[in-house]
Amino acid sequence: MAWVVLFVAGLFEIGWAVGLKYTHGFTRLWPSILTLASMTVSVFLLSQSLKTIPVSTGYVVWTGIGAVGTVILGMALLGEPRDIARIACVLLIVAGIVGLKLLSPH
Predict the structure, then answer these.
(1) 50 contacts 58 by C-beta, under 8 angstroms
(2) pLDDT exceeds 90 at position 5
(3) Could you report the per-residue pLDDT of 25-41, keeping only the tens digit for each?
(4) DSSP assignment, residue 84?
(5) Angle at 13 between CA 9 and CA 14, to 5 degrees
């Protein structure tokens, strides 16, 4: 169950990372509120998952989910480049996340 919680925490991290773009430096009320709420939920869920998952593994998986998801949404929503080199780098991050999950004692 801790891995599911960690995954959901990573999804909320994606939400707040992308949300930062829409806050315009926290000058827009509703995007700012939603971004801050996503930050809070993400960190809370991360803390819950770390009760059983080693902190080093949990933190790296959380940030990895956030990084990969943010890159994908940046490409899909914000018109960021979609070149092969960027996609290859994202796949390396995914490989690291999967590797850490497989090697985790929990």
Answers:
(1) yes
(2) yes
(3) 999 999 999 999 999 99
(4) H
(5) 120
State yes or no: pLDDT of 95 exceeds 70. yes
CA distance 15 to 12: 5
Q: Position of tokens 């939920």?
A: 41
In the chain, the number of structural domains is: 1
Alpha-carbon distance of 57 to 53, in angstroms, equals 7
Q: Which pTM was predicted?
A: 0.90
> Is the torsion defined by CA of 18, 20, 24, 27 positive or negative?
positive
Convert 42-53 to b/e letters by CB count within 10 Å (16 or more is b): beebbebbbeeb
Please name the amino acid found at residue 89.
C
Per DSSP, 6 falls in state H
Give the range of the structural domain holding residue 97, as residue numbers without chain letter. Answer: 2-103
